[in-house]
Every structure is written in structure tokens, then in C-alpha cells.
Task: structure prediction
Amino acid sequence: MTVTRFAPSPTGYIHVGNLRTALMNYLIARKAGGQFILRLDDTDPERSKEEYADGIKEDLEWLGLTWDRLERQSERLDRYEAAAQDLRDKGRFYECFETPTELDLKRKKQLNMGKPPVYDRSALDLSDTEKDAQRAERGAGHWRFKLDQERIEWKDGILGDLSIDAASVSDPVLIRGDGQFLYTLASVCDDIDFGITHVVRGSDHVTNTATQIQIIEALGGKVPEFAHHSLLTGPQGEALSKRLGTLALRDLRDRGIQPMALLSLMARLGSSQPVELCSTMEELIAGFDISTFGSAPTKFDVDDLLPLTARVNQALPFAEVAPRIAALGVPDDQAERFWAVTRENISVLDDLGPWWTMMRDGAEPVIDDEDAEFVAQAMELLPDAPFSEDTWANWTAAVKEATGRKGRGLFMPLRKALTGQAHGPDMSTLLPLLQVVRARK
Ligand code: GLU
Result:
């Protein structure tokens, strides 16, 4: 069975970059009729917060990305300890005592000599007595996995054939000096135990993947299929990392972005298939194909979400927006008409508010100097409210007759005088909703 996972660390809210990972894993699982696991990578007790764990779940639920199983790494520490012991028994795990400053110094020296900054494994030469002495002096050491220094190869679902020379990579630290298990060990144990068959994540994890393959093999697990998607950039190709804070999923939700708009964009961005607005998750699942994604950085423009959101909103049935319209104070008997009139003139549902305010209170009229006399004359001819669907046609016919104006020169000044804007809903349908006409006062 296909089993995938989305594995955020609950140290912050998730953003569009994380969504790409979540969505791809979700779609792969659903398309194969498999299982999608939400795994909280919370081995760091200081930075992991319950508030973020809840926030991540809320964000995924908002999008409809439901998980079949929830796992928390903080509840599996015994398993990680057992795996660590297994690696020790197999001679693949060794304790090191260098401080961060010492390691930094080593790296600088290597770089100065034009060498890659790979850990020199000097801890491997320590005798038991030396280790005891180090432990007594510096406290418990950190533990590194001893890589087999050979090429690590895999066929990546997006990047194709990959090969990384393990000799060019430092032996990864899996347990910190304070005993904290690090992501790599926890992730590998979980991927083995939960039977993960496919891992999709950002291309910043490619080197991790190489080392994880060796650790999985050392622990006797089955290596999953890996795919690494390109990182998102801003619209001009600029790094998005600094702006990701403003692209949290909850911020997009607060801005009124529709889930299907966001999902439809993210399921296709960076692939060779065009972005198509889907109306159901089933459609999205059916149209997903990871092999169509490319390795080039993917440009993301948050503004692209607005036209897609507008299309979702404009297609909403009245029943779905009725509570929101009622909350604006639109009288019940006018609510359906209000929706019919405004729906094509909104992007987000919050745009409904200003339209209602305009209809209820009247707009500040916009009257160009050359139209002042014409508008005054027209206002004399405007019948009294309430208006009907015929009011606009009858009124403009009368104004045409009286002033001789026609076409745009007739209609546009009247629209601007009544609504304060040059664009908006069809005037015949809008007029019956106008409660007040300020231009007349
Ligand atoms: N917690 C890791 C991250 O957010 C998970 C990476 C992975 O998918 O293994 O980067």
C-alpha cells in the first residue's frame, strides 16, 4: 500500500512552501488509494509549541487535506533510543566531543586549504580512556552516524538519477550532547516503522536523503521512493525565504483566498501541466502527476490566487453566501438580488461589504465638471424610490430625450454620479438595490 507523510515541525505556522510538500504527499496517497500520515516532528521540546501543532492541523483541515493517522515524534523517544543502540551495536555510531567552536575552526581551516568542510572523524581515533576523560571534562558527547564512503544513488521522482559521494558529506549528528534525538534519526525510524513508501519534500533535503538512505539500510529498513521538488521563489525569481512569514496559510485564509484556488495553483505550479481551477478534490487528485514537475525553481506570485479565488467565489450558490450577506444587514427580500448583482464584481467575499455600504448609504458622487449640468438635469428626472428593474431604462430614455446625450456620454456620468465609480454591476439590476441616491441631495 502507498503510504506518504507530511512532517512539519510545530515550531511555526505552515506557509505556501510547506503546502507544496503537504499537497504532493496527500495527492500521491489519495490517488493510489493509500494512506496519508501527518507526522509532527517535535523532538525539539524548546521550539515545538502546541499552539503551532493545532494551527497546522487547522490549516490542513481548512484546505481539506485530511490525514488518516497522526504521529508525534515526541512520543517515540524509546524507539529512537533502541535504534541508536542498534547502530552502536553495528559499529555505525560514534561519540564525538568537539564543541561547536572547535568544529567551526576545523571547517574554516579546511576551506582555507581548499578542501570541502567535511568532518574529519578524529573522534574515531579516541580510545575508551580518552573518551572517559573527555566525558568527565566536557559532559556527554554528540553521536554521529558513520557513513560508508561510497556513492549513494537513487532515482528521484522529480530530479531523475541522483548520485552523491558520501565522502563529501559529514557523518550526520543524530543525537546531541544534551541527549536530544535529531530529526534525521527520528525521521528514518518513523519512515521505516510506518511503512512509508514515498517521500516528497523540498530539494533542500537532497543531501539528507543520501545519508538517510544509508541509515535506513543500516537499520534494516526498506528505502522508500524519493522525490524532491524545487524551491519556490518570488515572481522575479527572488528568494522567498524571507517573505514566507507573510505567506502563512492562515494569512491567506484571512485574506479571503479560497482553498480550491490555492490547491489548484499549488498542484500545478512548476509542472508542465497548465493551472486549472478544480472544483473538487477528486478532480485535483485525478489530474495530479508528479512526473510532470521540473527541477527549475518555481515562481510563486500570491496575486495569482486572486483571479482564481474570484472564480470560485463567483460560482458560489446563494445559499452558501446567504449568512454572510445577512450579516452585512442586507434585508432578506433583497439578499438574493444583492448576490446576483454583486457576484461578478468581487474577488474575495469581503468585497461584498463595500458594495452594500454603497447601496445602503449612497456613494460620494463623482461628477466631472463638463457633466455637472447634465447630471443635475438627469437627477431631476429620476423617479422616486423604490426603483424597479425598468427604472434605469425608463430614466435614461427620458434623460436622452431631454438632453440629447446618448451612449457612453449618457450612461457613464450617471453611473459615476450614482455609484461613485466607473465600473460595477449592470445598472438596471443595481438600481433597485440603491436605497439612497446621494447625487440628488
Ligand atoms: N520536519 C522536516 C522538515 O520540515 C521534515 C522533512 C521530511 O520530510 O523528512 O523539513
